[in-house]
Amino acid sequence: MITEDFAAYAARVRLRFPAPVEASDLQAMLESFLGGVAMDCLEAGTRLIGHIKSMVEGGEEVIACSVTDHDARVRCRGRFETPRAEMDVIVNVLQYGLAKRELARIVATCAARSFPGLETMTIEDLEVEQETLIRLG
Question: What is the pLDDT of residues 31-59, one digit of tens each?
Fold first, then answer.
């Protein structure tokens, strides 16, 4: 059931480093990012996390990570196998208690904190507002 205090936020976080970063370091950064989003949401007043998920695709690698509980434990399927200087992280936050604008601020703050040494970072809001209903039949 979705209540009045439910908010969702989906974004593409596009990251560029000045040089390729080792795979193990990228994995640690990604996990730190997701755990940080969860903890910052809880500290800001989230009363219930529905889920916080991320997806990174590139070449043969697909890394999917999620947090689904208040313990902020990050679980990942897949790992980075090769160094890279660029990556897009799709993040999706579903929670109860914070407004979308607060979720956007938390994602941006956590990304800047979790991915040190960036050359550039851009964040694209992926939510599409539906202006008209589609009626079938």
Answer: 999 999 999 999 999 988 989 999 997 76
Is 134 among the domain residues?
no
Instruction: Please state the pTM of the whole predicted model.
Output: 0.88
The answer to whether the beta carbons of residues 21 and 62 sit under 8 Å apart is no
Angle ∠(29,123,63) on CA atoms, nearest 5: 40
CATH number at residue 114: 3.30.70
Answer yes or no: are the C-beta atoms of 54 and 128 closer than 8 Å.
no
- Measured distance between the N- and C-terminal CA atoms of the chain, rounded to whole angstroms: 26
Q: Is 41 helix (H, G, I), strand (E, B) or coil?
A: helix
56 and 30 Cβ atoms separated by less than 8 Å: yes
- Give the integer Cα–Cα distance in Å for 8 and 28: 25
83 within domain boundaries: yes
Query: What's the residue count for the chain?
Result: 137
Structurally, the chain folds into a number of domains equal to: 1
Q: Is residue 132 part of a domain?
A: no
Distance from chain centroid for Cα 13? 8
